[in-house]
Fold Profilin.
Amino acid sequence: MDSAFVDRAWDKWVTSNVGSSGNPLKAAILINYDPTVPSRLLSTIAEQEGADLYPVELKQFIDFMRRGNLPTETFVLGSNQYIVTSIHENWFAARCLNTTQPAGEGAIVMQTSAYVLVALYDGSIGSASQAMAAADLFASQLSRKNF
């Protein structure tokens, strides 16, 4: 795996998509993920921007992904609990259940062959569309390199 490519692509992508005012995402997390390895092995955070999570905190989320019961369970990231609202071939969208934001919060979760990208955003439908486009841009770069 070419981690230098992933680092460069991540740095370029977060500059124009994550964090500052006007960008579609408030945070993004890139997780090394291989669904074929035993679940007792922790997935690691390859990159993160705008979030402060530790691998141990991701265990419930990774277990949620492995179980594959997306429409019937919730998952936790940091202090927020999410419920899946739509499921697609390699990605799903979720809304935060315990948000304090008036317009709400959401997550777009995309899986490539080697990573899971979690893109977090504030807002509703329009914000979700912008977040999806931003997440898809990075996931497409990884997929072109078979990551």
In short: The first helix runs from residue 3 to 17. The helical segments are 3-17, 59-67, 125-144. The mean pLDDT is 90. The radius of gyration is 14 Å.
